[in-house]
Each structure stands twice: as C-alpha cells, then as structure tokens.
C-alpha cells in the first residue's frame, strides 16, 4: 500500500511539472495570413482558439503538433498584452509545429468588428435562395457552402 501511495505522489508531481511547462509561461510564434491581409507575422501570443471541422480547440505553447482544417467561424487570438483579437475566417488550415510555432492560412479573413451584420444577413438570404433554385447537385453543393459561411458570418456579426 505504501508503494502505491509513493507511486501516486510521483505521478502527481510529474503531472504538475508537465502542466506548469504547458501553461502560459512560454510564448508561441504565431503567423496568420489570408489572401487579403497578414494579421500576424511571427509575433508571440499566449493562446489561439480556432474553429475546426473536428471541433473548436484552443492552442497553447507546447501544443501537440497538429494539422487541421478550419471551418467558417471566428479565430480568437489572445495577445501577450491581454488584448483579444477576433477574426472571421471562411476556411483554411492551421498548422501547429513541434517548436510551438503556429500558422493559420485562411481563404478569407476579416476582423469581426468590420463585419456588417445587415450585409451578412442579406448574404445568407441570397445563399438560401440560390439553394432553393439550384438546378443540379453541383449548384446545390455550392449553395450549401455559401449558406454555411453566411451563417457563421451572421453569428460572428451578432
């Protein structure tokens, strides 16, 4: 029984030191760009939250290396100074490297504060109309993508 308690303490201490190493103590180099703008170019940030088809997830320094596809939604960047920047992405990829560097490449990206909510709702309405009048499967698929992006855009603008 004493050996079990010793092992338990050893594992607890090991987990604590791993948790401390994975916290905010270290920075991660962050690059975020789209076809229309470079938002971050190697700056150090504390955390990034991304919308992914496998589920939204947060990225901290020392995150396990990952490659993921972004779904339409808001990327939240927690800067070292305490600011939080929210940027809408239509799609793209996120790469997390072993050296704690993170790259996001987005098809389109815009700061959330620049989104016009009325224009987003209008875009959603047009996409839904295109879906209703789609003549073939390709047109329906394209309209479904437009609906998905527009719905995320409306949600981001609210």
TrEMBL record:
F1F0-ATP synthase delta subunit C-terminal domain mapped to chain residues: 116-156
GO biological process: ATP biosynthetic process; proton transmembrane transport
CDD domains in UniProt: F1-ATPase_delta (cd12152)
Classification via Pfam families: ATP-synt_DE_N, ATPD_C_metazoa
InterPro entries for this protein: ATP_F1_dsu/esu_C_sf (IPR036794), ATP_synth_F1_dsu/esu (IPR001469), ATP_synth_F1_dsu/esu_N (IPR020546), ATPD_C_metazoa (IPR048937), ATPsynth_dsu/esu_N (IPR036771)
Annotated ranges, domain ATP synthase F1 complex delta/epsilon subunit N-terminal: 28-109
Keywords linked to the UniProt accession: Acetylation, ATP synthesis, CF(1), Hydrogen ion transport, Ion transport, Membrane, Mitochondrion, Mitochondrion inner membrane, Transit peptide, Transport
Compartment list: Mitochondrion inner membrane
GO cellular component annotations of the record: mitochondrial inner membrane; proton-transporting ATP synthase complex
Function noted in UniProt: Subunit delta, of the mitochondrial membrane ATP synthase complex (F(1)F(0) ATP synthase or Complex V) that produces ATP from ADP in the presence of a proton gradient across the membrane which is generated by electron transport complexes of the respiratory chain. ATP synthase complex consist of a soluble F(1) head domain - the catalytic core - and a membrane F(1) domain - the membrane proton channel. These two domains are linked by a central stalk rotating inside the F(1) region and a stationary peripheral stalk.
Subunit structure as annotated in this protein's UniProt entry: Component of the ATP synthase complex composed at least of ATP5F1A/subunit alpha, ATP5F1B/subunit beta, ATP5MC1/subunit c (homooctomer), MT-ATP6/subunit a, MT-ATP8/subunit 8, ATP5ME/subunit e, ATP5MF/subunit f, ATP5MG/subunit g, ATP5MK/subunit k, ATP5MJ/subunit j, ATP5F1C/subunit gamma, ATP5F1D/subunit delta, ATP5F1E/subunit epsilon, ATP5PF/subunit F6, ATP5PB/subunit b, ATP5PD/subunit d, ATP5PO/subunit OSCP.
Family, per entry: Belongs to the ATPase epsilon chain family.
Protein name according to UniProt: ATP synthase F(1) complex subunit delta, mitochondrial
Annotated organism of origin: Hypothenemus hampei (Coffee berry borer)
């Amino acid at each position: 029984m004493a050996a079990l308690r010793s092992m338990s303490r050893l594992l607890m201490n090991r987990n604590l030191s791993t948790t401390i190493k994975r916290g905010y103590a270290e920075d991660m180099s962050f690059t975020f760009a789209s076809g229309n703008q470079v938002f971050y170019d190697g700056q150090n940030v504390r955390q990034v939250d991304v919308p992914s088809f496998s589920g939204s997830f947060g990225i901290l320094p020392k995150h396990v290396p990952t490659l993921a596809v972004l779904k339409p939604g808001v990327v939240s960047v927690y800067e070292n100074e305490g600011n939080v920047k929210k940027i809408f992405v239509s799609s793209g990829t996120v790469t997390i490297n072993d050296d704690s560097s993170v790259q996001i490449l987005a098809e389109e990206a815009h700061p959330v504060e620049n989104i016009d909510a009325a224009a987003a709702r209008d875009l959603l309405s047009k996409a839904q109309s295109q879906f209703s009048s789609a003549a073939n499967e390709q047109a329906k698929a394209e309209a479904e993508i437009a609906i998905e992006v527009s719905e995320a855009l409306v949600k981001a603008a609210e």
